[in-house]
Amino acid sequence: MKKHLSYGTLLVLITYLFSACHDVNVPITTSLTPDIFPQNTSQFIQASGPPYAALRGNFSLDYWFMQSLSTDEAILPARGGNWYDNQGYRMLHYHDWTKDHGTTNSTWNWLSLVIGTTNQAMSILSTTVPASTPGKAMNLAELRMVRALSYFMMMDLYGNVPLDTTYGDFSAHPNVPRAQVFKFIESEVKAALPNLSRASGQAIYGRANKFTGFALLAKMYLNSEYYTGTQRYSDAVVACDSVINSGLYAIEPRSTYLQMFYPNNGPQMKEFIFAIPYDPAAGALPGTNSNMYHARYDVPRSHTKRFNLPFTPSAPRSTLPEFYVNFKDPNDIRNNQWLTGPQFLADGVTPLTVTTTKKGYDQTYAGSDGGTAFTYQVNLTPNVVLRQDEATYDCGNDEIAWNMGYRNVKFYPDASSTSRNQNNDVPLFRYSDIILMKAEAILRGGAATQGQTALSLMNQLRANRTTSPALTSVNLEDIYAERCREFAWETWHRNDMIRFGKFEGKWGFKTDASAYRRIFPIPTGAFTVNPALTQNPGY
């Protein structure tokens, strides 16, 4: 749903305006002056577009790969050589990535671009527009939040990163300890909070408001022991309460849970605190990307007709049995985000069939009639087997291989798009996360507030997800399993696995238990640009 993209109407103009400043070695030159633009809150919002466009760029693609393919949530094996892609996906699964790993490099570059674009926008808008201009303080605070979010993602992935907040400063910045980066992000969010909007819904959709700030603080405090060595669970509870007490958000009921992720989602979703709007048309603008390709990666190629898609998807990725085991409650609406077992057309009755040959169905078929036509009902199986070549992470290039693994269609395929890009907006912070973070923080020792307990909070969420009886007790394993069910495919699973001590475990074909893999290496290319960097331990 893209009518709510409030900064989009002048995105082309503003993108061109900032394009001359993308090279960090070029001084700021702009025709943006206070007598022509911006002169009011609406124009200031439009002028803030480039950082938001940059944030959208690789979030649902490279960043998703880093956060999900490195866990038991998702796997993307090769099939007959297809999707091997210089072993990039294999490395994420096996935890044997190097400093030259492609997605490690592209994600670092993307986050650096978001930070640089935000520094650039803040510099231009803060120096060329009078302080009295309506909306200036609020929108500069928003941009500060975009930068803080980007630094949070960078800190979470790479640990020790350089801090650079001054556009035009071309000196090499050394990376600093993660605890120092944490302190910087916290100070930035707290500095932005007083000027951020308290509004929610259409008025602020796609932009950071005050409660985006509190949600980010809650996430940081919940992970503080891992990031800094110091527990801050009571602080996490207080940050969650700041969102809860606003009264602006609510848990979507069971009947509309799946609709939160439909192509027409948007500001009407009561849970969305901060979401990244996607629009296939936006990816065609100069200097922008949409990159919301979930259907391409998750919908089986046999399902083009079922979902009425204008393109043939590839569906190279699926989940693993170790993750899917969390979906064992038959009364839970969240089960419906998965494609499993025998498949049917949209009517739910007509079997979904594929006609191939006996050899095309099973490449190991040795009969003399391998070229004979063969029609079968598609049956998605839970296990992924490297039956062609384990060394090259290859399942084979027949129908059996392409039907391996249960598929996630939470971000429901967009039949209205004429490209592989989708209109589904992607939430970064949802109200259900606030509820579960508070429950977890209390279980880990945080001071309970408002008469709420970990059990009452857990049952508050589950009452909107399943018709099964309420729980009578709750522990951290229950919280972990609930987070798996609630936030599948939403880029939080790596963060959760690390916090719950599960990232070093075994799943799929992975056996590496090295703790240093909790953070990624600083890419080789980053050292070329910034020789002051120091590589992370273990790499």
Automatic annotation (TrEMBL):
SUPFAM superfamilies on file: TPR-like (SSF48452)
Pfam families: SusD_RagB
Keywords attached to this entry: Cell outer membrane, Membrane, Signal
Spans traversing the lipid bilayer: none
Species in which this protein is naturally found: Fibrella forsythiae
Domain RagB/SusD residue range list: 220-539
Protein name as it appears in the record: RagB/SusD family nutrient uptake outer membrane protein
Signal sequence residues: 1-20
Subcellular location: Cell outer membrane
UniProt record similarity statement: Belongs to the SusD family.
UniProt main location, coarse: membrane
InterPro entries: SusD_RagB_dom, TPR-like_helical_dom_sf
Keyword Signal appears in the UniProt entry: yes
